[in-house]
Amino acid sequence: MHEPYLKAMAALLRRSQPRHDLYTVFGHCMEAMALAIANSVDLRQREPREARYLDIVGHYRPDVLDLFPQVLAELVQALEAGPGDVLGALFHDLELHNKARGQFFTPYTLSRFMAKVTIGNPESVRSIIGDHGFVTAMEPACGAGSMVIALAEAMRDLGINYQRHLHVTAIDIDPRAIHMAYIQLSLLHVPAHLMVGNSLSGETAEHWYTPAHILGGWNARLACRRRHEPTGETHVHPVEAPPAPVPMRHTVPPFCEPRASTPAMPQQLTLF
Ligand SMILES: C[S@@+](CC[C@H](N)C(=O)[O-])C[C@H]1O[C@@H](n2cnc3c(N)ncnc32)[C@H](O)[C@@H]1O
């Protein structure tokens, strides 16, 4: 399904050779796309991100720079054809994983299987959503987002609107992976907070909020849930509390009051 788009994206990026190193161009292309998306919604981090964007584009002549939006257009078409880890597959097709010290991403078919296993009985997910409004998922080593995308697709297949009823926290130690995951989760409109960080030590360096997170008022929804969770049931994330993004002016935090009689139950799915 994604083959023609993957071929087109690889061919576009290869046009930058031999003048540029493919690994660097790929990284810059991903970062520039992620910055462009983030800057349309995350106003608090806009200024330094705009400066970084201008720094990246300053490296290239117009003919190479023109390749970046063309790669994005192919990616959008690929994801419109169907969900998948398109950028993870592109990373492998370009053989960049060898250069990245053997960074392998899970094949999407396997991620889909694991998503179904993670969900388990669909009725328990439906019941959590019925009681709390949403489920949360944690991906402590997200790569390009394969498992998160598969989870969203699995929920969609169950008739659950993941754009409203799923919130994802995703971490990766490699900024390039976070850029790839951020782009794909943004385009699929998955509410998510992604961090460049070390899941083992708990250190975090960067926070990326998808448009679905910001426009959906997820800071308020998550804070509301934290207020209503009994102390013993609060999920401990292995990272420090993130800075809150500035919401868009037209954002209306959704009503998120859980029922008073809601029983405490685990709401977080863990992917790894
Ligand atoms: C094998 S890949 C899997 C990625 C993704 N979960 C998937 O299924 O495609 C492992 C990922 O873990 C990341 N990683 C390794 N050590 C980490 C750490 N301590 N904290 C966060 N991420 C880490 C790597 O950068 C890499 O992207």
From TrEMBL:
Reactions catalysed according to its record: a 2'-deoxyadenosine in DNA + S-adenosyl-L-methionine = an N(6)-methyl-2'-deoxyadenosine in DNA + S-adenosyl-L-homocysteine + H(+)
Molecular function terms from GO: DNA binding; N-methyltransferase activity; site-specific DNA-methyltransferase (adenine-specific) activity
Residues in the signal sequence: none
Enzyme Commission code(s) on record: 2.1.1.72
GO terms, biological process: methylation
EC category: transferase
InterPro entries (UniProt xref): DNA_methylase_A-5, N4_N6_ade-DNA_methylase, SAM-dependent_MTases_sf
DNA methylase adenine-specific domain sequence ranges: 97-201
Pfam families per record: N6_Mtase
Keyword annotations of the record: Methyltransferase, Transferase
Family: Belongs to the N(4)/N(6)-methyltransferase family.
Name recorded for this polypeptide: site-specific DNA-methyltransferase (adenine-specific)
Taxonomic lineage of the native organism: Bacteria, Pseudomonadati, Pseudomonadota, Alphaproteobacteria, Sphingomonadales
